[in-house]
Amino acid sequence: METEVTSYLDKLNVPYAIKPHSKKLYTVEEVAADRGIALSQILKTMILTNGEGKYIALLLPGDVQLSWRKLKDIAGKGYRMVAIEEVERLTNFEVGAVSPVTLKEKGMQLYLDQNALAAKLVDISSGIHEAGIQLAISDLQQICDAEVVDLGK
Fold it and tell me: What pTM value is reported for the model?
């Protein structure tokens, strides 16, 4: 199964495993249930904007809720979730299948919640709803050049 994400990882020689789903899945809860893994092992990617042309991506474990107060302290005021259509235009991925690995190249600053570092391997989207990708958290952090911060409630 080849996607924009697998092609990118192959180009960088990053080891990963494709994790097929039994059907199209759209949420971290659905993926965890389908594959029998913990929510904390799956990273969700959230795209936000400050409304002034700056976009950021947040990577949080599936069991962590975003603290807007902490985000404001880290990135500044005025950030909001990006509308579905805008997410798809900015990332080339459908909502529910946004992968973080190519977002730095698309001009986004990435922030990785510190709770994600508890797992050696994490699951991210492959860019399609039919499968995920498992890779080392250290490789993901390096690829994304993500700043590790405390974003959780």
Answer: 0.94
